[in-house]
Every structure is written in structure tokens, then in C-alpha cells.
Give the backbone structure.
Amino acid sequence: MKSRGLFAMTVVVLAVLAATSCARRSPRRAAPATDDPLEAGWRFACAITNDADDRAACQERIALAYLDRGDSERALVLGEQIENWRRGVVLAEAAAKLAEGGQTNAARARAAEAEAIGRGIQDWQRDRILARAAKSAVFLGQEAEVGRRSAFYRSNPEYRGELAAYQALTLARRGAWTNALAVLDGLADSTHLDVSSWRANGYLLLAKAEPPGSAQTREALAQAWAASARVPGTKRWDVRLGLVEEAVALNEAASARSWLEEVSTNLLAAAPPAYIHAPLVAQLAVRWGLLREAERVAACERAAEPLIRQLQAIEQPALFALLGEAWARLGDTQKGLTYYEHAMALAGQLTNPRPRAMAGVDICLSLERARLRHRPVSEGLNRLLAGFGATHG
């Protein structure tokens, strides 16, 4: 009897710890959704109580989305609550944003925190954090430190490209444009996935550092597109779709449209497995939505739907949300809402709380990108959140 009582007490204690580990202010049940999809997304992330790694990964995505929104303060508040190494990544990214915005002292403090977390880890996550922390040094004007990090990781293909991109950006920011391009040109010998992806994204960093419409911006974008052709496998499409979106943001719609035509021709004619093809076609729809091409969005929709329905139930909500995002970005709110409501309904049918919460995170991040605020969406998120209790597992 005594051992049974001890076991029961242990179970209760573990349940309480799991329920409270996500956020200090979390009640026993997930709070109702607000009109802010990122707040709802954080609550979904915190509802993952039976897998600490998945919970932290989802929390990181939400915190980084706050950085993308420009809310460094909220990103840091949430990042501090992440309980594994991903906290260091959020701090490193926040340090870079703060430094870029001129908040030098705050940036240095957060970069130091990130460095301390990274140096306290002996596994691969150490390099992920320390490499990312170098980004803040770019905006703090610490050219020697960036160069030192780049040299240190030169023989490590997983981080060689990333650090070279930061070194190139440092050079470009002080006016050494030719030298900046040369650093990235020096990566052309590698076909490694990470190196080639970061080479393309490095040119993109240079383009974003120059005034929109300038000759240097256009030169760097052209270099980025050319470099993306060397990215191996299906990752090439991911990189190229990202470049299209950034070109639109830089007011280079003509280049974006030309590039997207090329991607569409290749992607829609391809026949990879549905689990690879469906997300790419849905992302293609989002890019056509950005360019306000309704017929092209509809064509992607027709191609994507049968592919999505071939996937496992846990994979479908995020992709139907992407179709909603495509229509919302196009400006057709009603069609967008139809897809988002369908995505939330599918998520609600998932019996396992972990994938249901992860689907909620995906939907919320899509809503944030679409900048869609609407009562049916808030009500749908509220219904989903109401299904989570203190513990699941």
C-alpha cells in the first residue's frame, strides 16, 4: 500500500510539472485564444506536454515569428521560457534584431546569454547557437569577430556557408562590395546542401542591405537566383520560393514573376512523392497570391488538393492553411477563410493532442503571415484550444 501511494504521488507531481513547465503563468487549462494568432500559437505550443522537444521547437517558431513582426520584447519574454537549447537560438536571433535596430547594449547582453548557453552544450546544438550568435556581431560592427568565426567554421560544411554569408554582409555594410561578393563566390566549389543554400541566401542578405531598386540590390538578387540553381534536391525549390517572396518584398516584382514562372514550370511537371510535392505546390500557390495572380493560385489549388488528401491526417491541416494563406494574400478573404476553417476542422478531428497542437501552431503561423484577423478564425482557434487540458500523454 505504501509503495502504491508513493507511485500515485509521483504521478501527480510529474503531471503538475508537465502542466506548468511551458509557461509560468499557464493555468490548468489552455487560455482562450485572442485575436492575435501568435498568442494563440504560443498556447498551442504550450499544450504539447508529452514531448519536450516538439514543444520547444514549436515555441521557437512562435518566438521567431514575433521577431519577424518586429516585437523583440515579446519574442524575448517567450524565448526565456523555452527550456532547451532552442532558447539560445531565440536569444541569438533577438540579439541580431536588437543590434540591427541600434539597441547596442541590449544586443550585446542577449548575445552574451546566447553564447553562454551554446558554450554549455557539448553536442551539435552548440554550433547551431554559436554560429547564429555571430549574426549580431555583424550589426555591432565586430568585423574581426565575424571573420574569426568564419575561419573557424570553414572546414565545417554545416556552418561554412552561414558564417561566410555573415562575413560577406559585414564587408558590404562597410562598403567593400566587391570583397563581399568574392566571399560568396568562394563557396561555388561546394555542392553541400547547407553551403549551397547559404550561398544563395548570402547574396540575398547583401541585396537586403542595399537600398531597394539600386543596381547592387539587383545584382545581388541575380546572383542569389543563379546560386540557387546549385542547391541539390528538392531543397532547391524551397530556396527559390523563398527568393521569390523576398524579391516581392524588395519591390522587384518583375524578377519575382519571371522566377516564379520558371519554378512553376518545373514544379508542376515534376512527380515527387506526395509528401514532398504537396507542400511545395501549396507554397507555390502562396507566392502566386503575393503577385495577385488569381488564375495561377487556382491552378495550384487544383494541383495541391488531391496531393494533400493523399497525406496522413496529421499533415493535412498545415497545407490547407497554406491554401487559405494563398487566397488571403491575393486579397480574397472569403476563400481564405474557407480553407482556414477547413484546416481547423481537420485539426480538431485529430485524437492525439500532440499533432493537434502542432497543427494549431502551423495554422497560427500561416494566419500571421497572411495578416488575417477575423471572427470565425478566432472562434475556430478558441474551439481548438478548449480541447486541451493540463496534461496529455
